[in-house]
Amino acid sequence: MTKIQVSRVIRSNLAIAASSLLMCATANAQNDACSAPTPIAGYGTFQFSTVGATTDGNSDAACLFFSVTQVFNDVWFCWTAPATGLIEVALCGGTTLDTKMAAYPGCGCPTLNSTIACNDDSCSLQSKLQFGATAGTTYTIRVGSYAATGFGSGSFTVGAVVPLVDVTNPVNGNRYIGLNVASWAAAEATAQMFGGHLASIADQAEND
Questions:
Q1: Are 90 and 156 in contact (CB under 8 A)?
Q2: pTM score > 0.70 for this model?
Q3: Beta strand extents in 31-137 (DSSP E only)
Q4: Tens of pLDDT along 124-159?
Q5: Which residues contact 144 (CB under 8 A, 6 or more apart)?
Q6: Is residue 21 classed exposed, middle or buried when 0-12, 13-18 and 19+ CB atoms within 10 A define those classes?
Q7: Which of 47, 42, 98 minimizes the C-alpha distance to 75?
Q8: pLDDT confidence tier of residue 171, bands split at 50, 70 and 90
Q9: CA neighbor of 29 nearest in space, from 70, 74, 66
Q10: Residue 10 confidence (pLDDT) above 80
């Protein structure tokens, strides 16, 4: 009788151990790995959760904010651009997490120093970034936390940035697009995307 009782205890402990392993395995965020990002497309609002996520992306000098270059507890999205133009990805009002966010060309694990945009606190403790996108092209969006101990969930929006002005000089055919961008780097990248450069319309060279 004693042997039977012992074998039952052993089986019970094994069942508990297996259950614990299963719970640990399913606790991680679904898109925690940069090699398996969640596919999204177009403009709209998208949900995210970093609960249970780990940090597998590289730190980058382009993400240096308050002495921190890493995006902690990151989750990954593969976004397909519906049109060519400047786009904005924003966590403003979508979460209470102290976020950090970055964007990269293509999908999958980004190479070192390939960041095209990164942001920490554009709207209180939440992030907002802009970059020039080309229709049909894919980009990686990385959402995470400023702090290694930060976890949370919420939503982010992806939308087109509408030009403040878009005019063409009838004399020389030069086109001028005015945009409210988040940074000088974003402005320069957008100008290059349109095949142009940053300029002042008061510059005589622009009117010759």
A1: yes
A2: yes
A3: 38-41, 44-49, 72-80, 85-90, 99-105, 117-119, 128-133
A4: 999 999 998 999 999 999 999 999 999 999 999 999
A5: 50, 53, 55, 57, 71, 72, 73, 74, 75, 99, 100, 101
A6: exposed
A7: 47
A8: confident
A9: 74
A10: no
Q: For each of the domains in the chain, give its residue range(s) and CATH number, in order of start.
A: 38-160 (2.60.120.380), 165-207 (no CATH)
Distance (Å, whole) CA 121 – CA 31: 23
Residue type, 95: T
Helices (H), the chain: 2-27, 184-193
Token pair belonging to 117:
């945009």
E-strand spans in 64-208? 72-80, 85-90, 99-105, 117-119, 128-133, 138-145, 153-160, 165-168, 175-178
Confidence check: pLDDT of 82 > 70:
yes
Q: What is the DSSP string of 170-192?
A: TTT--EEEE---S-HHHHHHHHH
The DSSP bridge partners found for residue 44 are 158
Query: Is the separation of the CB atoms in 166 and 194 below 8 Å?
Result: no
Phi, psi for 139 (deg, rounded to 5): -140, 150
The residue written with tokens 């902690």 in the block is: 72
65, containing H or E segment: none
